[in-house]
Design the sequence.
C-alpha cells in the first residue's frame, strides 16, 4: 500500500471547523485543526482537494508508488488579504494545500 498523509496547521481561521478530504472526487474522511490524517491507498496518481462549505483548495495531483508516502500540508490560505470577500471571489483558494517539503 501507498500512503497520503495530510497535516493541518493550527491557526485562528477555521479553528473549530473540519475540512473534508477528497481523493479523485470521493470523500475519504475529514481533518481537524492540528490533526494528521494518514490515508492508505493503492499506488497511483490522485487528485486531492479539501473542502469546507462552498470553499475549497485548488486540486493538487500527487503520485505515490508502492510503500511510498506523499506528505501534504494544509490550512487557511493566509495569502488572501481580503478575508471574507475571498470566499466569493476565489472560493477554490480558501484552503492552502501543498506538498510538504522534505526535511
Sequence:
Amino acid at each position: 500500500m501507498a500512503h497520503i498523509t495530510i497535516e493541518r496547521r493550527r491557526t485562528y481561521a477555521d479553528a473549530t471547523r473540519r475540512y473534508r478530504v477528497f481523493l479523485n472526487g470521493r470523500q475519504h474522511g475529514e481533518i481537524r485543526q492540528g490533526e494528521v490524517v494518514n490515508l492508505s491507498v493503492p499506488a497511483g496518481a490522485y487528485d486531492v482537494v479539501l473542502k469546507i462549505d462552498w470553499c475549497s483548495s485548488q486540486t493538487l495531483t500527487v503520485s505515490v508508488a508502492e510503500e511510498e508516502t506523499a506528505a501534504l500540508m494544509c490550512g487557511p490560505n493566509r495569502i488572501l488579504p481580503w478575508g471574507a470577500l475571498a470566499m466569493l471571489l476565489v472560493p477554490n483558494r480558501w484552503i492552502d494545500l501543498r506538498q510538504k517539503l522534505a526535511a
The helical segments are 85-89. The two ends are 23 Å apart (CA to CA). Residues 2-99 form a domain with the Immunoglobulin-like fold (CATH 2.60.40). The mean pLDDT is 89.
